[in-house]
Amino acid sequence: MMKLFTQVALWSGFTLAIALAAQVPNAQAFEIQNATFIGQQSIPNNAPIAGTPATTLNGLSGITYAGNDTYYVINDNAPTGDARFHTFTLKIQGSAVQVTPVSTTYLKTATGAPIAAQSLDSEGVALTRDGNLWISSEGYITRNPVVNPTISQFSVRTGQQSATLPIDAKFKATFDANGNQLTGIQSNRGFEGLTITPDNRYLTAMTESALITDGTQKFLKNTLTNPNEFKRSRVLRYNLQTQATQEFLYNAETIPVNIFAPGLTAVSEILALDSTGDRYLALERTYVQSSPSVFRARLYEFDLKGATDIRTRSAASAGIIPAQKQLVFDFATLGTKMPNLEAMTWGPVLPNGQRSLILMSDNNYSPSAPTGPTVNSTQFFVLGIGLKPTTIINTTTR
């Protein structure tokens, strides 16, 4: 394992989060017993929401639960370039889901200045117990100069940045003199997923697909001949108490349908299942080329226990043990055309004892304003997940 930080400044404003994690030496583990569909709701494209200035709701890409029916929602690379998060309420009554946008908070740099236009492509978000948001950005590697991926912390109250995690060089894009990419994430395929364990000990991110150095082919429309190279996502796990990092291989599934590129599936979100730091949910989605185009989505449980730490290795090298996974829910069973599911978070416990799981789609800044659920609208899906408590696991030694 590698120690994270060589400069205290990188941890500025983060002492409390470390202390909180240190107070939780034991972690409750859970097993998934079942998953059932509860209900769904949509909101119109370009729906207005209060803020200073007021804005509209499009391109929503991440969601995290704050308790009491309150959620924080981020959007990705807005054409306007305004980095921000939104406050929503979401109420579940039986199979009815009521979603209400409340307000918008604009993000700021550590000095309090506005975030520069289109310098933060927010994709993942996780709320800490001390009232901050970790936000992962895919960056913009096609820009000149390159904007590489980041994971930074922002205040819920003010939107101001308070900390930034170091990102290993392998995730950063470099190019030769002819413009050929040599290292880093693929364009628009960076830290799509981000989650924090309930005890706030582990912060975990996942790339949407393979790094350049984890395969031999870039993602090109209709030209990918070996999907096995594309599906190698990297899991990056930070231990926020010991300041150590580990990396693991997660292989997305291939779905044999007529899609954007043969067999192409990518990971759009992850979510900690418990505080062990090993067990997570992964949301995989596939773009299906049809008329109209739709998406295929599957929910998996995966376990990092026993997986190879690949921090110093290519994910394509021999002898690597990937994360073990199993299917939890296939959205094809709903019999409806699925939108671009990009986000998920735990919600409240349901009356039947299941834990609610909230999933949200990205409308990809569709110019239309549908009044009901369509492939290019913002939709919220609610599942009920049956969880069975298992052994208390000690996590202080890792």
Structure commentary:
Helix content is 3%, strand content 46%. It has one domain: Tachylectin-2, Chain A (5 Propeller), CATH 2.115.10. It has a 5-stranded antiparallel sheet with strand order 1-18-17-16-15. With 398 residues, the chain is mainly beta. The chain contains 2 helices and 25 strands. The protein starts with a strand and ends with a strand. The chain has helices at 15-22, 227-230, and strands at 2-3, 26-43, 47-49, 55-57, 60-67, 70-75, 84-93, 96-106, 122-127, 132-137, 150-155, 161-164, 174-175, 181-183, 191-196, 202-207, 232-239, 244-251, 266-272, 279-288, 294-303, 324-330, 340-349, 355-362, 378-394.
Put simply, the count of helices is 2
CATH topology: Tachylectin-2, Chain A
What structural category arises from helix and sheet content? Answer: mainly beta
Strand order of the largest sheet: 1-18-17-16-15
Using the coordinates above, name the CATH class. Answer: Mainly Beta
Globular, elongated, flat, extended or rod-shaped: what is the shape? globular
Q: Please, what is the average pLDDT?
A: 83
Low-confidence runs of at least 5 consecutive residues: 1-26, 219-224, 258-263
The largest sheet is: 5 strands, antiparallel
Return the string of H and E elements: EHEEEEEEEEEEEEEEEHEEEEEEEEE
- N-to-C terminal Cα separation, in Å? 9 Å
Percentage beta strand: over 45%
CATH architecture, please? 5 Propeller
Radius of gyration: 20 Å
> Could you say how many structural domains there are in total?
1
Number of strands: 25
The helicity comes to: under 10%
